[in-house]
Structure formats: C-alpha cells, structure tokens
Prior knowledge:
There is one protein chain. The chain is mainly α. The chain contains 23 helices and no strands.
Amino acid sequence: MSTLTAPRLAPEPTGTHRRRDQPMAYAGFWSQLRFVARRDRIRMSLWIVTIVGLVAVSAVSVLALYSTPEDLVAYAQVAQANAAIKALTGPGYGLDDPTEGAVVMNETSLYTYLGIALMCVFMVTRHTRAEEETGRAELVRSAPVGRSATLLATVVWVSGSSFVIGVGLAVALVMCGLPVTGSIAFGAATFAIGTVFVGVAAVTSQVASSARSANSIAGAVLAVSFMLRAVGDMGNGWMTWLSPLGITQAIRPYADERWWVLLPLAVLTAASLIAAFVLQARRDLGAGILADRPGPATAAAGLATPFALAVRLQRISVVGWGLGIGLMGFFSGLIADEAEALADNQAIADIFAASGEGTITETFLATIMLMLGLMITGFTVASVLRLRTEELAGRTEPMLATPVGRERWLWSHFGVAVLGSVLLAVVGGLSTGLGYAAAVGDGDQILPMLGAGLAMAIALLVIAAFAAMLVGLSCQRSIAAWAAVALAAIIGLLAETLDLPQWVRDISPFTHVPHMPAAPFDGVPILILAAVATLLTGVAMVAIRRRDIG
C-alpha cells in the first residue's frame, strides 16, 4: 500500500517572510493621513484662520497708523531706540530706511513665528505621544499599519498646514498692498519655522513618556530660542544665530531678502525629523526614551487625598513653569532700566502719555507683568483641564467609587491650578523686581513688583474658574477653555493695534487688573473679579453634580 506524503516546499526567503508577516514601517500611511486630517479639520482650520487673520488685520491697522514717511521715520526711531524694544520685537531689519513692509514685519513677524511654532508642537504631540498615552495607538497598530506610518502622516499633515498658513500670509499681505517678494519671503519663513518645530515636537514625542512632558520639553526649546534671540538682538548679534527664531527673522522680508537663511532652517528640520524616526524605531510602543521612574510599592500617607495626588501629578509642571517664568521675569527686569533712554524720544513719549499715569520704565514693567500673566494662563488652563484628561483616560470613575465625592475630585486639580497660578504670578513679580533692583541698585523696587504679580493673580483665578465651569458642564467641550487663553492674549497684546472697541477689551479679566507699577492699586476691580471667580466656581460645583462622568 502506497503512502501519500506531503510535498516538501522550499523555505521562503527570510526577507519575503518578514514582509508578508509584518507590515512595512510606513504601511497604511495614506489611511492614517486621511484619519488625521479628518480629526483636525475643524481644529486646524481655526488655527489657520486665526494666524492668517490676525496678521492681515494687524497689517491693515499698522498701514493705516503709519501712513506717511514722517510716521514711518518716527516709528523707526522708537523701535531702534534701545535694547529693551529690540528684545521684545526683534532687531528691526529695514528700519534704517523705513518702509511700510519693514514696520509691519517688526510689529507682527516674531509673534507670528511663535504662534505657528506652538501650533506645530501641540498638533504633533496630539497625534503621536498623546495617542500612545491613551492606548489608541495600540489599537491602530493592531490593524495593517506600519510602525512609522502615524508619525509620517502627522509630520506631513502639520507641515502641509504650515505651508497653507505661509501661502495665506503671503496672499494676505500682497492684498494689503505690500511688495510681492517680501510677502513671499515672510510666508516662506513662517512655513520654515513651523517645520523646524514639527521636527522638535516629533523628537520630544519620542523622548518623553507623556504628552504633557513632550509639550513641556518642546516649549522649553521654544523659550530658550526666544531668549537667545533676545540676547543676540540686544548685543552684537552672534547669539541670534543660535536661535531658530533669530535665524528665521534674518530672512529680512521687505528689507533686501536673504533667501539663503532658509537653508539652515531646512537642515535643522531634516536633522530633527531623522532623529525622530530613528528614535521611534528604537523604542517600545507607549514608552519614551526617558522612561518613567518606577515608584515605591506602597504610597506614602501624604498621598491619601485627591488633592495630594493632584499635587504629585502636577508638581513637575509647576516647577518647569516656575523656572521659565522666573528666568523671563529676571531678564526683563534687567533690561527695564533701558526704557528710560526713550524719554527723549517725543514719539514714544506721546504714546506712553496717552496710556495714562506712570513713567516710561513703569509702563514697560507693567507691560512685562501683563505678558507674564498671559503666559501663565497656559499653565492655569492646562492644570484645570487635567480633570478632563483623567476623566477621558478612565481614571476618574475608580476614584469616585471610593469615598470621594465629585466636588472633592473637582477641587483637587482646580486647587492645584489656583495655588500654582498664584505661585507663578508671585515668582513672575518677584523675579522681575529682583532683575530691576539689580539693574538700578535699589532693593526698594522688589516689593512694588511683587504687588504687581499678586494683582495679576486675580485675573488668573477668573480664567481657572471659567475652565472649571466648562469641565463641570461637559468633559468633551471643556477644551474650549483654551479659547479664553487665546482671547486674553489677543486683547492684551493686540488691542491697540487692532483698535478693538472697549466692550471687547472688557471681556478679558486682565483689562480690569491694575497695571502696576504704572497705575496705582485699586481694590474695587480686584473685588469684582474675585466675585466673578467665586460665581464661576459655584456654577462648576453645581454642574459637576448633574452630569454623567466618563
């Protein structure tokens, strides 16, 4: 009887077997790109419209304000008067023989670059590290999706959005009547700095083990870039070339454009993206290159309350923000004494005279405190929205299954946000006062700046209470709290440029805070803002009892 035997098959080549059993690194790229675009179709549209719209409106306002050669010359004298102004706006390329385009760039370029850099950081982290942190990336990878497909799709999507912003800016400025070449240069520079921070965020998303840490590291890179640029513009300029922001400004739109400046930015982008993909291939999904340090087997007695847990979760964020605010405040205080040199300039003297009481230096210090307060709102909202993160991650329901009430849970992170915001406001005022006291050799300048920081804290409490109210009303929609940060920044920094009506300015709590030390302390608006914060907090506590959790 014959025996049937299975035919022997030749073994497949190892490479073929691997290609068939494992998805290629970039498999599923197009589906991931469509998915990312669909998720961001509204969010990214808002970013694009906001950045392009603000620059366009600012350009129209600046062109209307400085409509004659005499006005342009007066502006140039103010902008180039001393180091303090250059630290806040830039070196003032093209202002030696001022043109309308050069003035528009000096007013808008630096903050446009900062805005698109932040957009790129947030968007890249949102689709990379945040997806791994929530576990959604693991579900996506269970489908035929390559290891690097999501990262590549994110880079292409965010870089493409930056390109759209660059084109939009160029078109908007040409429509405002500015030269085509300079408008294209500004659009190209904006796109270039955006791609640089796409690369930075791509790297930090591989290094950090959480989205919050990735954003913090990328934000620190942006802050250092700003500081290097400011120091370089105040000095002999060589430190400017260590900063991506400084390099980007050196393209000099409307001032004998230097196109070769785009080359080092392209090199920085390429190097960071290569590093990101190499790191991504060498780490485990869900883990960062810098792994979380394992904690002790048993928790300390001090962690037995929701508030203590919230402090533990946010302590690194508070320390990081404190260092950044402290350094910026101290640096700003050091250069505040330079503002006195503007007293002989009639144009800027008229500007400050129209703004109310206070010397030029006091007005400069009040402006610095406002900028620090607006920066701290980023921490305030992010800290309150940690409640949203915990709820969406499913960690809130187990906590509420214990003898912890909803109000107590809400108070935990809200309390950290309140205390942290007040602490950062104190750090900002104290560091600015220390820097100014060191510059003028007068220790009596410290307490007034500390008082200015405490006055600014009440506006932060209103922002925190507003964010808590949104969390109480709806977990999903509480992300709208970031709109309060954007609106406060637009009103605080661009109200005069955009010629906003008073009722719009009154929406921001920072409008009602006494602008110390340029203005005297006034307790009435402080009490009113405290009452508003208390009311919003009460609404939050009532609302959290009435909605579903999770």
